[in-house]
Amino acid sequence: MPRTFKIGAAQSGPIQLADSKKSIVKRLVEMMKQAASEGCDVVVFTELALTTFFPRYFTEDRAEMDKYFETEMPGPITQPLFDTAREKGIGFYLGYGEITPEGLHYNTAILVDKSANIVGKYRKVHLPGHVEFDTKRTHQHLEKRYFSPGDLGFNAWRTMGGIMGMAICNDRRWPETYRVMGLQGVEVIMLGYNTPSVNSQYNSEGPEIRKFHSRLSMQAGAYQNSTYVVGVAKAGNEDGFPLFGDSCIVDPNGHVIAHATTEEDELVVAECDLDLCNFGKETIFDFARHRRIEHYGLITEQTGVIAPD
Ligand code: CDT
Asked: Is cis: bond before 2, omega within 30 of 0?
């Protein structure tokens, strides 16, 4: 008997600065309803799903950015997502900007089960970009200005019939992200992203190679940890700043089994058998038998490169 788990990857089309959060939640609810009508167990939304990708804008007074963050979850504006999830019996992953009661800012994702309970929270660990305005870049990427690095680590949760993990955007490029969850037996890693179509520091690096790197990272992470990976984009032209789409669902063999074809709101669905994760976990990637941790110390002892003399 396969352990069937149907996943909906709900790519968002562009969100403009002028768009209200209420109108965005309406779009997300529509996709959640569609996913439920197609029999999905879970629907995965993107990183910072409630706003435009605001870290591209510089402001001296960072408090001006607080309007892009949530102080409570659910709050009055996001409540319809929770109501719909409960009514339709579908779980969801949602990325958003979080302000804590202590006033800390995080790039956060939550995992919500089919009864609309928040069962997991993740705060983005690998924050890309820079702190100050950078005149050399064609566009800014100020995540290091507006967010603190996540303090919750990479966890996995047993819920909805499987072992679920979360990551956010740039995390998908780091093998450590997948391995820490792999060591907890993860079977589905959900991650949302906002990736500019052009490299701000190297303009000839356009969407094709950037999509290739995105897939390469997720396919490798899936295969090397024998897990499904669901990568969900915010896509399209946000006030003149293009983001690539290419949302996809990758199986534990590293194959892309479903992918988006537009840069609009688009639901991509795949019926997954979580038992497909078992073979890799019990053979070539049976960590308990094959890992040699006595040789991996540098990974946690050292951050940057120290080349030999
Ligand atoms: N949102 C996010 O993490 N985007 C990055 C782009 C980094 S460019 C400075 C990504 O890895 O896709």
From this structure: no
Q: How far is the CA of 86 from the centre of ligand 1 (A)?
A: 32
Q: Which domain holds residue 174?
A: 4-301
Buried b / exposed e along 126-165 (16+ C-beta atoms within 10 A): bbebeeeebeeeeebbbbebbbeebeeebbbbebbebbbb
Q: 82 in a domain, yes or no? A: yes
Residue 309 belongs to some domain of the structure: no
The answer to whether residue 24 sits within a structural domain is: yes
Q: How far is the CA of 214 from the centre of ligand 1 (A)?
A: 10
Is any atom of ligand 1 closer than 6 Å to the C-beta of 51? no
Q: How many domains, the chain?
A: 1
Residue 192 counted as domain residue: yes
Assign residue 204 the CATH number of its domain. Answer: 3.60.110.10
Instruction: Answer yes or no: 47 catalytic.
Output: yes
Exactly one of 40, 98, 114, 169 is catalytic; which is it? 169
Is the pTM higher than 0.90? The answer reads: yes
What is the pLDDT tens value at each position of the chain, 309 positions in all? 889 999 999 999 999 999 999 999 999 999 999 999 999 999 999 999 999 999 999 999 999 999 999 999 999 999 999 999 999 999 999 999 999 999 999 999 999 999 999 999 999 999 999 999 999 999 999 999 999 999 999 999 999 999 999 999 999 999 999 999 999 999 999 999 999 999 999 988 999 999 999 999 999 999 999 999 999 999 999 999 999 999 999 999 999 999 999 999 999 999 999 999 999 999 999 999 999 999 999 999 999 999 999
Q: How far is the CA of 306 from the centre of ligand 1 (A)?
A: 25
Which atom, in ligand 1's list, is nearest to the CA of 124? 3
Measured distance CA(168)–CA(100) in Å, rounded: 18
